[in-house]
Amino acid sequence: MCGSDENCAACLYCAAWGRRRNNMNGHNLSLRILSLFLAFTVWFFVSAPRREPVSERAFAAPVSIVRMPRDLVITTPVPDTVSVRLRGRISDLRSLSSQNLEVTLDVSWVTPGDAVITLSPQAMSVPPQIDVVSIEPMKLRFHVEALRQTVVPIRPFLIGQPPPGYVTGDPTLVPDHALLSGPASQIRNVTEVATERIIMSGRSETFVQNVGVVSDSSLVRIIEPLVTQVTVPVNAEIGPVAPAPATTDTTTDDASVEKPAETKPPEKTPVQKRRHKREQ
C-alpha cells in the first residue's frame, strides 16, 4: 500500500483506480438487477401454464370403427358418440372440441355372433397434456353377421296416373335385375328392389328415363347396377265401338203391302129365302 502521502504518484494512481472500481461496481450492479428482472419475467411467462388451475370437462366424442373384416357386417345399432370426461388446464380444455376428439374402435378380431368391446383411454386421440378421466359407456355390444349376395328383379316405381284418355303400358328396364349384398338374415327375404320415383302425371306419350336403383334396408347394398333405363309406354285409350242405332223406314210401297182378301157373305138357304120374302 502507498500509505497516507497524497503527493505520492502511487497514491494518485490508487485513488484513480479506486474511483474507477467504484464506477464499475455500480455498473455491474445495474446489469445484475436488469438480469434478475429479465430472468424473473421469463420464469413468470414460462411457468404461467403450470400455475393455471386444472379443471374437468365433458365432451361428446365421435366413435370411429376401423378394420372391419370385408365379409362381415354389424347388424345392430352402434352409438355415433360416447361421453368422455377430460382433465387438464382450462386453456387446453377450451381449445378442444368434439370435432378433434375421436374414439377409435379396432374390430379386426370380430367373428359372426355377439361381440363386446371395452373402451379404454388409449382408444382416444387427445393432446399429451390432457388426461382421460372416464368414458361412458365403457362397453359397446353389437351383433355381427356374414355378408351374402343375391340377384333380384328391379321393379319400376310409378307415381300418379297419365291424363284422362291415356293409359300406361308395361314398362321395360335395361338392365332389369340387380346384384345385392347384405346380412344373411336379411338378404334371404329380399325378393325385389325398386327404382326411384317415376312421375306419371301429365305424361301423354312414351318416354325413357334413367333412374337410380334403391334398397329399402340400410344394411342391404346395391352392388350393380346403380342406375337403370326405364321405358314407359303411354298410349291413347281405345274403348269398345258402340253399335250404330237401328233406323226404321216409315215409307211403304203400296204394291208390296198385301191387302186382306174380301170375304163374300154366305149364301142363304131356301128356308131363309122364303122367310125373307114373307118379311118383305
Describe what you observe in this structure.
The protein contains five helices and 15 strands. The chain folds into three domains: 9-46; 54-137, RNA Polymerase Alpha Subunit, Chain A, domain 2; 147-236, Beta Complex (RNA Polymerase Alpha Subunit, Chain A, domain 2). The N and C termini lie far apart (222 Å). It has helices at residues 9-46, 48-51, 90-94, 184-187, 270-279, and strands spanning 54-66, 72-74, 81-89, 103-106, 113-118, 131-136, 139-159, 166-168, 172-174, 177-183, 193-199, 207-214, 221-224, 227-232, 234-236. The strands form three sheets. Strands 2, 5, 7, 9, 10, 11, 12, 13 and 14 form a nine-stranded mixed sheet that branches. It has a four-stranded mixed sheet with strand order 4-1-3-6. The chain has 280 residues and is an alpha+beta fold. A hairpin with a 7-residue loop joins strand 11 and strand 12 (207-214).
Element-by-element helix/strand order: HHEEEHEEEEEEEHEEEEEH
Amino-to-carboxy terminus distance? 222 Å
Rg, nearest Å: 55 Å
Per DSSP, what share of the residues sits in E-state strands of 2 or more residues?
Answer: 35-45%
CATH architecture of the largest domain: Beta Complex
Within the CATH hierarchy, at the fold level, what is the topology of the largest domain?
RNA Polymerase Alpha Subunit, Chain A, domain 2
Overall mean pLDDT stands at: 81
Low-confidence stretches: none
Largest sheet: 9 strands, mixed
Instruction: Supply the number of structural domains.
Output: 3
Structural class: alpha+beta
Tell how many strands the DSSP assignment holds.
15
CATH superfamily of the largest domain: YbbR-like domain
Residue share in helix: 10-25%
Number of helices: 5
What characteristic shape results from the CA principal axes?
elongated
CATH class of the largest domain: Mainly Beta
